[in-house]
Amino acid sequence: NAPGEPTLGGPYFLPDGQHFLFAGGASGSTVYVASLDGKGGRKILLDEKNRYARFVAAPDRKRSGVPGYLLYLAAGSVLMWRPFDPDKLEFAGDAIQIAEGVDEFSASPSGVVVWLGIGRALSQATWLDDKGKPLGPVGTPEELRGDLALSPDGKRVAVSRRQSDRWDVWTLDLERGGFSRLTSGGVHSAFPVSSRRGSRVF
Length: 202
What we know:
Layout: E1 9-13, E2 19-24, E3 30-35, E4 42-46, E5 50-57, H1 61-64, E6 68-74, E7 78-85, E8 90-91, E9 96-99, E10 102-107, E11 113-117, E12 126-128, E13 134-137, E14 144-150, E15 156-163, E16 166-173, E17 179-181
Antiparallel strand pairs: 1-2, 2-3, 3-4, 5-6, 6-7, 7-8, 7-9, 10-11, 12-13, 14-15, 15-16, 16-17
């Protein structure tokens, strides 16, 4: 974003691969949903003081009747969990608070949610096997944030990396362990998302 323009960030695709969530507004604290073809414009899902929304498919959809959930940060750092229908693009129930003082979070397809408390710390990218056992580190410990966007071939991952008090999107070579910068300039860039074919990073 150029100076004076609305803040945009945190794109996240819904299961159909066509619609996506993103944060916008004057301070980047309003959550919208829009389509890649531009049809229907953009719809406000969460008003101001909400950000960083992620969709999680319900692991017990047949029993609960809920297609999935929207995880998001309310009031800056309160992690919320709310039933959401990605086909109708609307909520299907009331929100439930999970935790306070949250900076980043992620969720597995099984519905397990993990989060990072507010603060600055180094993170180490690490390979795990299908049982969660560490296989070894990749690269060096860095100050990273947000989700890791893995390429379809599994050879590289896009990350938000902080250097000299600014955030940029970098790719990490998972075979050689080196970082390559994708963005630069006078504004922060973060929360990368890889396209399905891996040819683009948003």
